[in-house]
User: Fold these one by one.
Assistant:
Number 1:
Amino acid sequence: MIVAASVWADHRSRLESCRAVDVHIVNDDSVTFITRKGIMHELHTHNVYPEGKLITSINTEEIERILDKCDYLENVECYIANNDELVIEARQFMPVMRVYDNGDSSVYYVNRAGKRMAADGRYHIDVPVVEGDFTGRYQPTSLLPMIEHVASHPELDELVTMYSVRDSNNVFIIPSICGHVVNMGNARDFESKFKKLMLFYKKVMPHKGWNAYSEISLKWDYQVVGTLRSKKKPYEVPYDPEEDEQAPSLESVNIKGLVADTGDSSSNEKKESPSGNEGMSASSRVKKAFTD
């Protein structure tokens, strides 16, 4: 009887048809790139819409492969449920940066895995902006660790407005403080480089002037090189590497002679009014943070 029931059930299952398609968009509480209707359209377009077809003729792996190629989806899982419905669980594309690629004059979003989605005028996602010439060997995702570091530190997130890549050894950040750009060198050791930059902003810029330099370079270990706008010899700030050779902290950096060169900080420091930062531009807020 058991064998007969199994044979009968197997025979019947071969005659069952797909009753419906049940679509679940896992992260539909984020941006909305695609809807249930959009996924149905993809199934019809590729002639794999399963409703009404025999269960045994439905290739769920093929449907997954087709939907995975959709720009607006990160990953898809398909299976046949006990009620003879095809269930599609889809995760929408989650961009981590918006890229202006000078190589092919294209604009696109990139997710953590490096998948691209063409930038569409219908959508605007508030993610970091990256501009540059990218190649097969050097992709925008190379900047992701640096971008995530900036996003996790409010003072840096306020400072950095976008990233510009000339090549793998010349990665620039465009600060909210107008008048100069910052050359980070390569995208490694960025924690140490940002500490040097913040020290330079704190100890030098309020005295030399926020428009004194056209470029600030952090490419070299234990020094900051500022290119004066007047084209004079770059102003260099040496650092003592004895305490921490890989990542000098603000406490361990030796700035002896730095204030002497730029003037007494106590006499030149501007006094700020007790009022808050409401209505101030990003540039003004950042400058105020370094001069308080």
Number 2:
Amino acid sequence: MTTQPACLPTPQPLLSRTGWALFLSAVVAICAIAPLLNLALPPDSPLHMSDYLVALLGKIMCYAICALAMDLIWGYTGILSLGHGLFFALGGYVMGMYLMRQIGRDGNYKSDLPDFMVFLDWKELPWHWALSDSFVATLILIVAVPGLVAFVFGYFAFRSRIKGVYFSIITQALTFALMLLFFRNETGFGGNNGFTDFKRILGMPLATPEMRMSLFVMTGLSLLGFYLMARYLVCSKFGRVLQAIRDAEGRVMFSGYNPLGYKLTIWVISAVMCAVAGALYVPQVGIINPSEMSPAQSIEIAIWAAVGGRATLIGPIVGAFAVNGAKSWLTVAAPEVWLYFLGALFIAVTLFLPGGIMGLLRNPRSLLRAWQQRRKGL
């Protein structure tokens, strides 16, 4: 009796031909078309891209990176985090500290210390501001600080086999606890006002069209780069193990794999992605405060991923643009309706579109089928 050799799955290409074409089109749009429409065309041109739109799209692209990070940990690993807003804010605070040091003596009090420290009668910088005047050290800390927090928390949580709703509650509690800590003036993070009034980065003024467009391009390229990295991860053996952990963690352990290392690795990668998004967000928006750590912010990240479609990578990006685009319009047109709309959207997606927007695009009849199933259930 002969035995057939085991057939390993054929490695998937990183992107299809159509995918590469769309990817390169996005690169051209971010690096060439957007700067041309914003900087070269006059403001009275119908094709001019306003500074407001540049800032709005840059902010949404930062959110899209967070949604992509959420998809890696929730969509592909089955771990729902309600604390990713913490990592986003930590990256933002590290960048904010550097930008505050860049103000120099141009603040209201003409001091080497940030204005809020002078107001609180601080005489010197606290120890955790020691490297905040170095851009290179700032880049390292943007990755290292959230990565270390994520590693320590994830190690003890996953080692204790905390999962499901319990893990979600703990991540939300961690975020809320650190938000309260950052609200305190004595911690040296600006209290409830946070950091603002930024003026320069690398010695160059922030409030110029050229700098705004440079940050826009950097954010867009970061989003595309993280998307390629995520595609590489989920198409590899590492990604297949993550999906196996999501579907049946007990069987993965029975097969000889230790889920701890896999879950911890993707958890830290996801946290660092959010931190980079936060660091790109702060110079474009011009402020960072503890409200970015609020539980509602982390819940919104999960909503973007759910609305776009989990375990699709492109879906959460689409969801971030769709939800935040609607938010930008509704908060002006009908601000009192926005939160009701967001809640109704999440309920509707959960009940009728479990595959999100991408699931509807792939199978337009899925919405009708879900509606019929719900009617039968009633």
Number 3:
Amino acid sequence: MIDFIPLMVIVPLACALLLNLFSNQNKLLKCLSFIVAIIIPAIAILCSYGTHYFGGYAPMVDNVTNTLYHPAITYTFTVFQQIFIALVGLLAFLVVLVYLTNYKKVSGFYLFLIFLGLAAITAIILTDDIFNFYVFFEILVLAQVGIVAASSIENNYETALKYMILGSIGGPMLLLGISFLLALTGSVNISDIAIAVHSGVVSPTSSIFLMACALILFGWAYASGLPPFHTIKSGMYSKAEPHAAALIQSFTVISMIALALIMIRIFMIIPYFEIIIVGFSAIAMILGVSMALTQDDFRRMIAFLAVGELGFIGLGLGLGTHFAVTAGLFQALNEIVSTALLFIGFGIIARTVGETNISKLGGLIEYYPKTAILLLFGGLVMAGVPPFNGFQSKLMLVQASLSCGFPELSLLAIIISIATFLVFVRVFYMMFLKPKPKDLVVPKKPVSRSAIFAMIVLFAFCVVLGLFPGIVTSKIALFVGGLF
């Protein structure tokens, strides 16, 4: 079953090509995309843990230094990769289901972009080759730009173009940092680079090594949507179709943690590296919730909250202890689920009512009670209210900050969670509880059953992981133990 590892990338990639090839065959597009969307998470669940060496080139041992070298592109599949690939695969299935059931005529090119992005993000989390990471990262950026450009939301082309222009800066800087690491270590294999750094072959105070760190940090901020890229990233979420925004957010989170784990393995030896990561994350937390407070468009509001929640992930990763990194990765898992629930739920309102300005809405709970209740629970999850999974991961982050001797970070996390709760209460009241404006006409459109089903599935995950967090935290902790 180890041979299934490359199939997790090959299957969605082949599906994407076929969907683009038969873009005029509507029934074939629906059947193929639906079947492959089921197969992808199934492969991740059934595949055995192990390592796949492309071309059959097994690692070689240097007889002088007794060091292991990896001449081929290597994919590593552990319980950590299994959890996140299965989750993003499940989310992709729900997104495809919502799309197929809400449109009689589907776009082969649009589905091509979804599965292309899915293949790219899977490769990003599997690869132990930093150049291979970069290649699929660029493919993922293009897929996200295409998904936004293909949406029907006003000013989507402008947002997609801005993100692509920034990508022409962030991507090359990331590649330049990788080239510096190649020059220093003679390898692009992440494990080989980490061994070279920690064995003393590369000096942690080398100017080239420090420049590589700075360039890759810049690429990480761009990939994650952390400051100074928070505005354009939130714009990407708000200008994509709501179901697609849920998927783009999962792509962002996984890109963030994948590159962060690479940096932890390679650059943790640099003094003050952890402080830089924590600093970026704290600023993202503050800016995200602050800008969400000023929004009247609920799409922009949830987009900025999603950016702010990334700061909680970075906080755990930046603290750098075994428990803190585990908490950060658990928060990443929870954010993917809770944010997807909110994007899909708010998308129901935007699609059926045709209005996204909360000052012009009101009384919608009478028309959409199921959506309102699920959105209320989704907001509580994001704000870290017990007994949901968001509470468990944020509690772990507070404990990690205290154990590392930073009570001010614990206080910041609590304040941001309270502010997130207040933002959501305001939006929920304005949309659902206040009296309906006289000039608001609520169309008698049926609510998408597939979207409600997707929200219920995601909420079920929030409840299960909130009541039984050990289901995943024990496995994530086992993976993190191998990093230290």
